[in-house]
Amino acid sequence: MSFTQQLAAAWQKNNSLLCVGLDPDPAKFPAHLKGRDDAIFEFCAAIVDATADLVCSFKPQIAYFAARRAEDQLEALIAHIHDKHPGIPVILDSKRGDIGSTAEQYAVEAFGRYKADAVTVNPYMGRDSVEPYLAYPDKGVILLCRTSNPGGSDLQFLEVEGEKLYERVARLAAKEWNSTGQIGLVVGATFPAEIARVRAIVGDMPLLVPGIGAQGGDIEATVKAGRTADATGLMINSSRAILYAGKDEGYADAARKAAQETRDAINQYR
Asked: What is its EC number (predicted)?
């Protein structure tokens, strides 16, 4: 199945709009994992296994692996998700942004090496920085649009011919650039009014929404602003609040409890 088909199936099967972000920080791992060469894989795999029936997607952030020379563990983790939990899409959060042959290599990295189902991409170099990822018709390409960080307003809120820059990105992504139907957008939960604006522009396009949990985004406002007519359309990401809900050997059980509470809180407003 394509990324969009997998995502639609996961929304229904697991009754969930929750995306669990996998941002492993060994300094926060339980004591029994510290010092192990495979600690990052083991930590993340246990979280995945404990929460897979509660989510619509997983989102490993590549920097947390690459900074510790753990790219092989990232490969193993994505393979583990595909093998043990088929049908749950994996979004490689790498925010790549370049043109030409370099962008082609980033696409090979995401889809060839890591076997991700989707990748996050920075679109601010324009259409030709997005096109190499669209050459993989079964994959998702999720463009940064209105990000959850406060500094996002420095550029994304600038006026461009009567509309905000993030609105222009949304419009291009929904129309001219999305000829293959693969594109989604990142819109932060910290800006529910902008989520609603993006939804109005793009119709039923999938939105990846970071910013709830540790970043303080409001779940009710996020869901009401971004849901589609069939009460889907969102991948609402939570990372730290789930990953580090527990600090001892029962960390995976604690993560499951936090994930279930988050999923149910989201569903309350669908």
From this structure: 4.1.1.23
